Amino acid sequence: MKKLLLLAIIGLFSVIGCKKNTTDTLLNTYQQRLTNILDVEADTIPPLDIPSYPRTHVLKQPIADITIGLLNAYELRQCGLFQLIAERNSILGKVQDKTRRLHYELLLLKQIEHCLNILNSADPLQLQLKNIYHQKQQQLPQAIWNMIFTGQEWRQQFTLGHQLLSSQQFGGYIENLAAFEYVDTLTTTMLSSQTTKHSLTTNNIDQLLHHQQQIHNTQYIGQLFYSIARITTIMNTITTQLITHDQTVMCGKNINQQQAQYLRNVFYKYYINDIQPYISKLHSQYQQLRPHLNNIYAMLVQQQITPPTAMAVYARYYFQGELLYQFQQATHDHVRYWQRLFKRCQFKVGHQ
């Protein structure tokens, strides 16, 4: 009985382990059908050589600890600071994750503003709170940076995947778009000299924890980056092989164009019906996310944060357009090849 159970478990894991990625299968079939018609071996898809996400210790920005004592407890209670500071100084408060730490910093700044507005101007606590407020504001870019690029739920989004996103499943896109759109707005509000911090309500600040929870179980962005880079390499490989053997594809009057017709059929069946919609979906989602990622990164760098070299390379490739350019060029070159073949063979555009 135990042996049967063991065999069943092994069989289950074998099935799971052997389950193929549907997008990989589609692209492999497309390449194989084309090369079969050309009567050549399919070129090997080269391994990816793309920037990986830097380690946490490289990315972390130092932040000096500014302690706020609970002296003047009466005044602090009057303006709502006492409980907030007490929670931060508690055992749990001292082990907050990066998101909860930023959440605290934002609430603290908002509450200090409130205290400064209601405390007597002659109160010695006024000067102390003004100094703390100024210091905390100065540290805000580092706090946002550390959350986005080193906080567990956020950094796991940037860690590259190892397989193509399934054409049927893009899990995590909606949650990530909402989360980074929120952080983009939050960063702009808190760091721009042209906006007022008073517009940031407690409910706005609490949304930070909501978005942390929403992306907790996803690793979407890194999978998207990997998929786009991999598709780029695959399309370039297929296009290069098509161009290399193009002279063997005969077209013209009184010439048997059966080989060219077979190629056209494969193009429509696989590329037009399935691959192009997949590529369009990748492109659309990337174009929705990239401006927010680039805005957040650029605004933080403008705040005197010097990113490590590895992060600058990563941002330039994924946030600032290098990957997008290569991706668009690869798809453009592939379609251009088919346009030239259709023109040479006088094929009408559309299914035959």
UniProtKB/TrEMBL annotation:
Annotated Pfam families: DUF3080
Matches recorded under PROSITE patterns: PROKAR_LIPOPROTEIN (PS51257)
InterPro entries reported in the protein's UniProt record: DUF3080
Name assigned to this protein: DUF3080 domain-containing protein
Organism: Photobacterium piscicola
Superkingdom assignment: Bacteria
